[in-house]
Design goal:
single chain, mainly alpha, 2 helices, 0% strand
């Protein structure tokens, strides 16, 4: 923070005016910080939504692969059984 100036020490009006300017500057900084925090919050929520969506897509992909593999295994078992029955 700025130190008091010589003119502030001599004049209450000058001190009041300089303090008002300092408080305006502080208020502007607080407003900027609030805006930045809101932006970060929005970005975090968006990122969370994207991660959740990617997780759902990945789960769906894994289920599809699992069903495909099980289908291939069942078809292979069926083919092997028919081959075994033919050899009897």
């Amino acid at each position: 923070m700025a130190d008091t100036t010589d003119i502030e020490k001599k004049s209450l009006e000058a001190h009041v005016e300089l303090c008002a300017e300092r408080y305006k500057a502080l208020e502007l900084q607080f407003t900027d910080v609030r805006t930045d925090i809101k932006d970060l919050k929005t970005m975090a929520q968006t990122t969370h939504g994207l991660v959740h969506k990617m997780s759902e897509n990945r789960n769906s992909q894994l289920i599809s692969w699992g069903i495909g593999i099980i289908g291939v295994l069942l078809a292979t078992c069926g083919w092997l059984i028919t081959q075994y029955i033919k050899t009897l």
